């Protein structure tokens, strides 16, 4: 399977999930998730029976999405690359033990989040930002256009400055809060999915999200007061 | 607008999805994954590779029940039982050997008729280390037809009185 074919579909899912997630009905989300689950189940079954090519398809399918998850938790491209390789390697070794109690989507995300959180604990505060470039298609994003029209700090700051401020604010959060923020705001996951991945209650997810939003509000308030510092 | 509200923070953070790695990164990711797996495989010990192959074989035969945890625990218990049985049998075997060696060694001496005080002397001879016995056996064979010579205490042990004044 050509990796370039899987990329747009994964992006499309992200876009669909992230735009107006709160207003979406549960039935629509479930209907969209169903083919994904069925396809994944087939690929998992083939992998378990020894078909390595089936696992390759899973890797191609989930790489962009997991990259976004790990990258936004680490803010470092090289670390993300290494972690992602380890995540898939671990998943390949453990896939025989995968009994389908949760979806493959939840399972692989759990592995990625847990490995990233462990990595961040070991890394501690010794890190440097190694940020990816912002895709030019952001200029056509409806939300970006709205923000540049309504919010003066965003209007005045250039893209790289905005990216830097956002990442700095994110890195000031604790690892667990950053994970929740990444999954909810950036990846567009619903609370229920996040709770399954993190093995915590939905209430805990909501409370972490609330606390993280307050913190981000404080950090970004400085940006509002002094947009081009 | 005075400050960012939750909705705006959400919108701002959603812009982070536009941070993307260099073009071609995702295309090369799978190749890199394969390369790392090969490297890892080369570093693994032979027994581990063999074990994985065996597991693959078992899974292809659909004998998952055999590889399940209860079966694995049962197999471990059986192995442990066999090993423990062997361990318990071990000392008994050596005792038997010792018991067999004793008459085997003392018998020729009695047959040759040089020992008249059979029981005390025999006890003393068997109390000696096995290495000595082997040496004496080899001496015996080296002499060929000549009868073996045994050096005994000048006074038989059994005739010694316990107290002398």
In short:
The complex is a heterodimer of chains A (229) and B (165). By secondary structure, chain A is an all-alpha fold.
Helix share, percent of chain A: over 70%
Strand content of chain B: under 5%
List low-confidence stretches of chain B. 104-113, 121-127
Largest interface chains and counts? A-B, 56 and 34 residues
What's the count of strands of chain A?
Answer: 1
Strand content of chain A: under 5%
In DSSP terms, counting alpha (H) and pi (I) runs of 4 or more, how many helices of chain B? Answer: 6
Report how far apart the termini of chain A are.
47 Å
- Structural class of the helix and strand makeup of chain B? mainly alpha
| Sequence of secondary-structure elements of chain A | HHHHHEHHHHHH
Overall geometry of chain B comes to elongated
Task: Please give the share of residues in helix of chain B.
Answer: 55-70%
DSSP strand tally of chain B? 1
Describe this structure in words.
The complex is a heterodimer of chains A (229) and B (165). Chain A is mostly helical and 229 residues long. Chain A has helices at residues 3-18, 26-48, 52-74, 77-94, 104-123, 142-150, 152-156, 159-172, 175-186, 191-198, 202-225; one strand at 133-134. Residues 1-32 of chain A have low confidence and may be disordered. Chain B is an all-alpha fold. Chain B is elongated, with a radius of gyration of 39 Å. At the A-B interface, helix 1, helix 3, helix 4, strand 1 and helix 6 of A face helix 1, strand 1, helix 2 and helix 3 of B. Strand 1 of chain A pairs antiparallel with strand 1 of chain B, so a sheet runs across the interface.
């Amino acid at each position: 399977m050509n990796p370039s074919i899987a990329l747009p579909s994964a992006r499309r899912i992200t876009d669909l999930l992230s735009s107006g997630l709160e207003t979406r009905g549960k039935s629509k989300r479930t209907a969209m998730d169903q083919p994904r689950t069925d396809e994944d189940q087939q690929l998992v079954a083939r992998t378990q029976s020894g078909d390595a090519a089936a696992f390759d398809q899973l890797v191609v399918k989930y790489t962009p999405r997991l990259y976004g998850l790990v990258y936004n938790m680490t803010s470092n491209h090289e670390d993300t690359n290494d972690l992602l390789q380890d995540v898939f390697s671990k998943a390949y070794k453990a896939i025989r033990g995968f009994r389908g109690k949760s979806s493959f989507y939840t399972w692989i995300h759990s592995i990625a989040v847990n490995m990233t959180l462990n990595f961040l604990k070991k890394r501690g505060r010794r890190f440097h930002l190694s940020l990816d470039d912002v895709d030019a298609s952001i200029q056509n994003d409806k939300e970006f256009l709205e923000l540049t029209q309504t919010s003066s700090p965003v209007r005045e700051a250039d893209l790289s400055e905005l990216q830097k401020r956002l990442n700095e604010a994110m890195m000031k959060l604790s690892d667990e809060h950053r994970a929740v923020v990444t999954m909810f705001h950036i990846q567009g996951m619903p609370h229920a999915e996040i709770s399954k991945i993190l093995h915590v209650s939905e209430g805990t997810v909501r409370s972490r999200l609330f606390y993280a939003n307050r913190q981000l509000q404080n950090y970004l308030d400085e940006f509002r007061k002094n947009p081009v510092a | 607008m005075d400050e960012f509200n939750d909705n705006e923070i959400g919108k701002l953070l959603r812009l982070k999805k536009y941070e993307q790695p260099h073009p071609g990164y995702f295309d090369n990711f799978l190749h890199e994954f394969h390369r790392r797996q090969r490297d890892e495989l080369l570093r693994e010990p032979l027994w581990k590779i063999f074990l994985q192959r065996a597991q693959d074989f078992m899974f292809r035969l659909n004998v998952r029940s055999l590889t399940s945890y209860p079966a694995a625990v049962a197999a471990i218990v059986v192995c442990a039982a066999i090993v423990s049985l062997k361990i318990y049998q071990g000392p008994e075997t050596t005792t038997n050997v010792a018991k067999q060696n004793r008459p085997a060694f003392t018998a020729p001496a009695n047959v040759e008729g040089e020992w008249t005080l059979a029981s005390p002397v025999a006890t003393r001879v068997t109390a000696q280390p096995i290495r000595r016995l082997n040496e004496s056996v080899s001496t015996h064979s080296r002499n060929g037809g000549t009868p073996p010579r045994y050096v005994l205490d000048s006074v038989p042990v059994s005739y010694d009185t316990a107290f002398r004044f």
